[in-house]
Amino acid sequence: MRGQYQEISPRRIVFTWTWEEPDPHAGIETVVTIELFELGEETEILVTHERFPDEETRDRHDEGWSGALARLVKLLGT
User: Fold this and answer.
1) Which strand (E) or helix (H) includes residue 72?
2) DSSP element (H, E) containing 46
3) Cis peptide before 22 (omega within 30 of 0)
4) Which candidate, 66, 33, 64, places its Cα nearest to that of 51?
């Protein structure tokens, strides 16, 4: 995969996500937005990944993002 950062700020990162060959979705560009919200002594992370070509691809990425964020929580011990 490859992509390009579109916005980087202390509370928000936006970047494109494009698959490369041999993935069947090569050339299709999606957009990922990561937002950080202060909640007292904690931080909430909101990941929005959009512009998928179909529901199956969206659902696979939902599983991937959920797993990655769960590993982050485990790593940080919260």
Assistant:
1) helix 55-76
2) strand 42-50
3) yes
4) 33
* C-alpha separations of 42 from 31, 34, 35, 38 in Å: 26, 16, 14, 6
Domains of the chain: 5-76 (3.30.310)
pLDDT digits (tens, 9 = 90+) for 17-75: 998 889 888 889 999 999 999 999 889 999 999 999 999 989 989 999 999 999 998 99
Residues 6+ away with beta carbon under 8 Å from 74: none
Q: What are the CA-CA distances from residue 28 to residues 6, 10, 15, 31, 41 (Å)?
A: 17, 28, 14, 10, 39
Supply the pTM of this predicted model.
0.86
Q: Is the CB of residue 1 less than 8 Å from the CB of residue 20?
A: yes
